[in-house]
Amino acid sequence: MLKEKHYAHERRTKNRDQKRIKERLQIQAIIDEFLSFEQLQQAQQSEGIPALFNQVTQHLDQHKLSFSLKKNFYQHFRKQIIQYNRSLQTDVPLPTQYLVSIQRTPLIFNESWLDGSKFAVQLKEKLLRYWYTANGFTADESIGNILICAILYGGISNLSSLDALLENLKEQGPIYHLQALQLPLIFLEPHSPHYGDLYDPKQTLRKSRNFVPDRLTQLWISRFKTQSIDIQHDCYTYIRYVFNALEFSFNQKKFNQLLQTSSHSFMQLDKVKLSPALAQCLTEEIESCGLSPSAFKRYLSPQLILDHDQTEEPQPQNINNRVKEEKLHTEDPLEALTALHKQILTFFKNRHKTTSDLCNLLQSQHAYLPENAKRLGLWLFSLFRPTTEDIKQITELYQLDQNKYLLYINQQQKIRHSSIYSYYTKLAESWLLHSTDFIEECNLNDHLEVIYKRMLNGVGKSKSQKFDLLKRFHHFQRVIFDADVFPMQNERFHLSSPKAEIISAKIFQQMLARLEYYKSPSYTAHDLEMLSIVYTIAFRTGMRINEILGMRIKDVEGIQASSIWIRPYRAKHQQHLLKTDSAERNLNVQILLTQEEHLKFQHYCQVRRRAYRPSQYLFTMWNSTERLKPNMVTLPFQRILDAILPGHRYSFHSLRHTAANNLAIILTMDYEFVVAFTDYSNDHYNLIRSHLLHSKAPQDSWYLIAHLLGHIEPNETFRSYIHLSYVMAGFQLRQFDLMLSTQIIQKICPTLITPLKHAQEIHLSSFDTQMLQATHVIPLGIDKQSSMPINKKEIQQKPTDDCIYGTARSEYPSALIIKILKALDQSYTPELLAQKYDFPIEILILWQQNILRLKKLKNRKNRPRFIIDADKSQRILPHIETMEEKIVLEYFFKQLNQHSYNDIHILNALHIFEMKANISHAGLIFNSADIRLANRFLTGIYSLFPEKYWQIAISSEISEEKLMERLQFKFLSCSMNSSLNNSFKFELVSQNNGKALTVLRYCMLVLLILCTPSQPRS
Asked: Where are the transmembrane segments (predicted)?
């Protein structure tokens, strides 16, 4: 039998609960043993309370209980004494021992740091004296001075970064200039074997390290650029030349000490306000990636293609099932396996049938599947934890050991559907491709090592993930197909490679502008408005895509939609889980969004609140309640960026990276820095800081940013998301403006001209412009070219004059119209509804008049034609209860979008319905002589409902063949009805139970209320 398995979050919750229960039982056992009311009373009478308390303490120490258990015990200890005092009205003293746990990172400014700073101070003093007294500097000493200044003043404290700087100097690499901040910038690419953003399969992993030279380093680089110096040695050798000139002993230990004392030096520089977190980024104690040159250029000065051409969504090519079946049996094995892979991918679209579809495929194709496809299919089947009956059928068919298959499944944890899809897509293609060469071999197990190495060859950043996935897949082959031990057990591929990309405000605004012109039959204008809000929230708050799509209406808090509560939902049908437990948080969107963006979001939320229930999804397609699929959000985003910025490397997740960096510089930097990189106004900058920063401690800012992104601590934020940390730190280090003798400056770089002729000492900042010219910097500034004007739509759009309310051409969703009509049908006053739903009262009065008119209509028997139950209520609109009817209703309003309220065909159909409708039938009955009338009716409304739901019921007296010939519309379903007397009936029939759906009657009544020719238009 299969063991019951649980998802990872369920297992974590269960483990926490079990631990809590175990601790509670242990605590209760100690209380029962030492602190029962009887024992306390005896100890009190014998004045032995202190001895009893000491006995409890000794018991805890002897058993070496955990800190958390001791802490909880003393809380229960106090409660027990309090309850004892209350019950017996006595005053036994409470235990005074408390246990408090404070976890903090090691202090940066500790004793060893002070010892290191002493060495740095002595070195800087000797260095300045050396510059004063030396008659000149050799080429080797010049390079050594560049490296030492970069260590002591520029923040480089890692050997690989120092080597990268030397390599840049050797290759005469470009120096860029951030014009807005007057910052020189050098792009370094140091080797970083386990963490980096620059992957090349032929080289060691590297990372982008943005180096902002301080003024002293820049001064020595200016000397280097004006002279012809050939670099032939390594960093150690060049620094040794300088130490020899200083008459300082130098060896490898001193070299390592110099690198370690980098932070001791730059953290003590005047006017430098560098937070400890940024200092640890410079010393590589906190991993962080900068931006590559191409990413930086895309960010600061993107070369956009600006035009008004509509971005169109390419139409997918449909391949019928017969063609797919033929491809499965083609003679080319690779083509057949590709077709099989594509067919399995289609199974994932319907998650409720994925297991059954896969099982049917394995059963029907077992004679045609090669060995590699069998192993892949059977492994995938096991991940879904199929029933024992299905396992029995499959194992018998493939001649496998059923007990082994059950054993393997029981050993595996329960995996979510989305995770299974990820596993399959990461493994399937490469496995089928590289194992096809060996499908003719007698034993595939002999070639697994070769196949695995081919699969891992050329894999980039995800090699560690694929390696772990291969181990999982191989374990299945070992259990089921008797494969050997994993052949690559001792190899390690674990590396981390973040995608360092940031989207500039200019790109984002142009993307939103092009979104208005996006052309696709899948999206209405309202859908595009909704997508612009989704993109804006991701851009400003850094929310993950699944966090945004999983939000409910009730998660938006406050009348003014001031905050968002990001939380999980564990209902079976609408499950929404967060990535981690720390992802549950509250975001103040009223502060994070601009005023205009928040007004747009606020209006959207107001419309959703009026029309839908609080538990329904906040972001859906127009007139839908289903959760948005991620590709519906990411596809337009990618298409538009492809059109305006070819060759980009952005994804939707890049918006989260952008928000992280924007918030980081807003909360930790001055506005001078913020305005150079973002589009935040000074007022918005001050608003965010005043509302979010409640402390001046630098670490609080970084923990706040981590919280906003849903991280437990800032290390992960720096590691994966902060890409401007080196530029931020370099900007702070540039605030140190050393005053040097003009004689030294002239000695170091003779080409510099002193601005003040009679000055003995001068600040290095006076030479900024000259040093930039001497180093031949390349401007790298924010592109100020004129951009395409953005059409800013009014927040409230007026409906088209001839549209039907509830369609996409109106500003009101169908759910709101249905809610209003239901209230009018229940005799609510138009005045009350107009105030509640902010709806034009003239329209409501007209609809009320139409409802009253319909209630007065009588049939031939003088009974109400539309009132459902005249004795109990005067209601005419039937209830829409089943999911099937709701789907038909959604389709109905979508089709209505193509029609106007005065469409002559719809009005004719409504007139016929008004004459022939009967309360006892969900459909419409026509006599055999009324075929022309029936065709007129169908002309108006047939296309408004899905074709598969239409059914015609025919009397036995009428020839079905002749009737079908005379009707102008096709019916997929036809039935005989003996109760019909020489007549036929049109109705919508359920696909589940074959019963007539009341949604036809409901929709016709809605049209009778809405589509009145004399209806005024607001």
From this structure: none
| Segments in 301-416 forming alpha helices (H) | 321-328, 333-347, 354-364, 371-383, 388-397, 402-411
Residues 435 and 456 grouped into a single domain: yes
Would 99 be classed as within a structural domain?
no
Chain Cα centroid distance, residue 349: 20
Q: Which domain holds residue 876?
A: 814-1010
Q: How far is CA 767 from the centre of its chain?
A: 46
Q: Is 550 found in the same domain as 403?
A: no
The more confident residue out of 674 and 61 is 674
Residues 265 and 329 in one domain: no
Q: Are 304 and 399 in contact (CB under 8 A)?
A: no
How many CB atoms lie under 10 A from the CB of residue 210? 24
Q: Does 1017 map to a domain?
A: no
Tell me, yes or no, if the pTM score tops 0.90. no
Asked if residue 452 and residue 579 are part of one domain, the reply reads no
- pLDDT digit string, tens, across residues 279-303: 999 998 899 999 999 999 999 888 8
Rg (CA), the chain: 37
Helices (H), 838-897: 841-856, 883-896
132 shares a domain with 34 = no
- Least confident span in 408-412, 531-535, 632-636: 408-412
Same domain for 667 and 773, yes or no, is: no
pLDDT in tens, 447-460: 888 888 888 775 55
By three-state DSSP, how is residue 770 classified? Answer: helix
Question: Do residues 258 and 354 share a domain?
Answer: no
β-strands 778-779, 176-178 pairing = parallel
Burial category of 992 from C-beta neighbours within 10 Å (exposed 0-12, middle 13-18, buried 19 and up) = exposed
Average pLDDT in the chain = 85
Residue 597, pLDDT > 90, answer: yes
